[in-house]
Amino acid sequence: MQEILRREKNIQRKVLVVDDELVNRQILGNIVSCDYTVLYAEDGEQALELIRQNEKTLSLILLDLLMPRLDGYGLLEILQADPELKRIPVIVLTSERDAEVKSLQYGAADFIPKPYDLPEVILARVRRSIELAEDHIMITGAEKDELTGLYTKPFLFHYGRQHDRFCPDMQMDALVLNINRFHLINELQGRQFGDKLLKTIADHINELLKGTDGLACRCDADSFYIYLAHRESYEDILSDAAKKFVEAVGNTKVSIRLGIYPNANKSISIEQRFDRANMACTAQRAVFQTSYGYYDDELHNKELYNARLINEIDEALETRQFKVFYQPKYNITGDKPCLASAEALIRWQHPELGMISPGAFIPLFESNGLIQKLDRFVWREAAAQIKTWKDRFDRVIPVSVNVSRIDIYDPELEHELLEIVSSNGLKPEEYLLEVTESAYTDNSSQIIETVEKLRSDGFRVEMDDFGSGYSSLNMLAALPIDALKMDMRFVKNIATSDKDMRMVELILEIARYLKVPVIAEGVESQEQYELLKNAGCDIIQGYYFSHPVPPEEFNELIRQEEE
Ligand code: C2E
Ligand code: CA
Ligand code: CA
Q1: Residue 241 falls within a domain, yes or no?
Q2: Contact in structure between 387 and 381 (CB atoms under 8 Å)
Q3: Assigned domain for 313 exists
């Protein structure tokens, strides 16, 4: 199926131009002939004949309304009545505004006003209508989500757009509803319970939308998108939902969060409107109770801020606004802690916004793939730094760099890392890679393959944020790694909580079983340091020894060691 669709993407598509005026046929024909094979008809009847002959291969009809014999409306009517011909999108060519609405009601996909716009505009509309129609065909069969009977996301967007077209003045709200900790619920209470929960929510939404022209879909497992007429309040709906959960699944612990983009702005795309509702939804921090929030000025400013960061990343890289800081890792297994390696951590020194912390831009750039650019910059800087220290202090201080999830899927990864290392005259053994544990749980076979390749080249790989990704012991035993970096959360409270200390001991035991050293991150106090040392932790990274610092300051740490 995929293959057929792919092949179809490359064929030359056919467009039929129907107009009784020769000059109009010529203008339009010229414009679209650069991308499409063009057929011509002088009136509706001739058009219908051509359409029937090319029923299977025709991609679009550009249709004049006023013509002798059979006019545009007449032809539209015939097409709409025929299930086979109905799938061919029709763009109506018209000079009267009134005709636009009428032709949409007759089933036209779009219209192009006369006199004609710029050729690019016309081509873009032609292309878009064809794409929409093809997407529609491609996804038929998946109009509804099997489990809940709600729409799928592409269809929600499609019908949402249609709704906007027919009711442009109706005020609509875009909602995103999400179940808190759904993955955990699924895991702890079973899939069946999870499914029942999803169906309960879908029923509740259906009831809410009954008799209205609202639309809803389920996507990404536990998200529901709802597009409905504006409401002043959602309190009642949420409290009803809570009651339904208790009735249906007898569980009061299930909670949801709701993000609302009220009176959604129709001049932006429907996808963007739901992105905004989604922002409002993810901004809800509570995970144990039902909560809701609106897309507001604060979120709008955040959206603008994010857009600015995305816009400026290239310039910032060119003008060296990004700096790499280094945080030392000390080996504490001997009498005296000794400098073992460092972690490279990026900083953005923005000329107007000041120092931006990685927490503000890393997740953003991870979500759109831009992180790859940044990572490569850091990898190069780190390699050059190892070389500088080698020349200056005659000693190798291995540096670890963060490898993002998306890098793992990049077929060029191995090649690029080898090039970076060798162009600085280094051996892969002197370079460490940190890969976050949750990347392993996402797609373990792919990651194991990649990491194995890198290790056979000589790179050493540390599993970052260990304990946050729910790896099973079985899986861990199969993983090719050189060290575990314990998630900072575990260290945070070891001085005050026995339970947390026992967790840390457990992790150390797992590491002994795997025969790999443990690195504790986020160590801030003498007390934490001693507890970890006594428990048998190997390496420590944290403010207790040093914050991440620029290279000049790191030089001082190296010098102190030499004394
Ligand atoms: P991470 O990889 O877990 O890095 C450790 C974070 O802990 C760093 O935050 C570090 O400054 C901080 N930290 C170190 N010692 C202590 C301590 O004693 N107490 C506390 N509270 N924090 C400590 P930072 O630099 O803000 O980086 C945050 C995250 O951003 C990193 O978490 C990493 O996931 C990401 N990141 C930073 N630089 C890069 C990069 O170049 N590439 C990628 N992909 N991610 C990066
Ligand atoms: Ca890290
Ligand atoms: Ca970490």
Answers
A1: yes
A2: no
A3: no
Q: What tokens were used for 403?
A: 């490898």
Contacts of 213 (CB under 8 A, 6+ apart): 163, 167, 229
Tell me, yes or no, whether 468 and 506 share the same domain.
yes
Query: Which amino acid would we find at residue 68?
Result: P
User: How far is residue 176's CA from residue 56's CA, in Å, rounded to a whole number?
Assistant: 39
Query: Is residue 523 lining ligand 1, measured as CB closer than 6 Å?
Result: yes
Question: Dmax of the chain from CA atoms?
Answer: 100
Q: Give nearest CA residue, ligand 1 atom 3.
A: 465
Q: pLDDT tens-digit profile of 227-259? A: 999 999 999 888 888 888 888 877 667 889 999
In a domain, 307, yes or no: no
CA 447 – ligand 2 centroid, Å: 17
| β-bridge partners, 16 | 39, 61
- Please report, for the domain that includes residue 289, its CATH number: 3.30.70.270
What does the block give as tokens for 96?
């009267």
226, 237 Cβ separation under 8 angstroms: no
Q: How many angstroms separate the alpha carbon of residue 264 from the centre of ligand 2? A: 39
Residue closest to 32 by CA, chosen among 53, 46, 13, 57? 13
Sheet containing strand 14-18, strands side by side: 37-41, 14-18, 58-64, 90-94, 110-113
Verify whether ligand 1 is closer than 6 Å to residue 522 (CB atom): yes
CA nearest to 290, candidates 263, 258, 249: 258
Which amino acid is located at 190 in the chain? G
Domain assignment of residue 326, given as a range: 320-558
- Do 472 and 536 lie in one domain? The reply is yes
What is the side-by-side strand order in the sheet with 291-294?
215-219, 223-229, 172-179, 256-261, 291-294
CATH of the domain at 485: 3.20.20.450
Answer yes or no: do 95 and 227 share one domain.
Answer: no
Q: What is the pLDDT of residues 40-91, one digit of tens each?
A: 999 999 999 999 988 877 899 999 999 988 999 999 999 988 877 888 999 9
Quickly state the pLDDT bin for 2 (edges 50, 70, 90). Answer: very low
Task: State pLDDT tens for residues 350-402.
Answer: 999 999 999 999 999 998 889 999 999 999 999 999 999 999 999 999 999 99
Residue at which a domain ends, from 88, 119, 140: 140
The rounded distance, in Å, linking the Cα atoms of 215 and 202 is: 12
Average pLDDT, the chain: 90
Pocket flag, ligand 1, residue 486 (CB < 6 Å): no
Rounded to an integer, what distance in angstroms lies between the CA atom of residue 473 and that of residue 464? 16
Closest CA to 250 of 259, 242, 258: 242
Indicate whether 48 and 81 sit together in one domain: yes
Q: Determine contact, residues 216/151, Cβ cutoff 8 Å.
A: yes
> Tens of pLDDT along 279-289?
999 999 887 88
- How many domains is the chain partitioned into structurally? 3
Q: What is the pLDDT of residue 278?
A: 95
Q: Is 29 in the pocket of ligand 1 (CB under 6 A)?
A: no
- Of the candidates 204, 211, 188, 212, which has an alpha carbon nearest to the alpha carbon of residue 148? 204
**Which residue is closest in CA terms to ligand 1's atom 23?**
522
For ligand 3, an ion, list residues with CB under 5 A: 464-465
**Is 99 or 548 the better-scoring residue by pLDDT?**
548
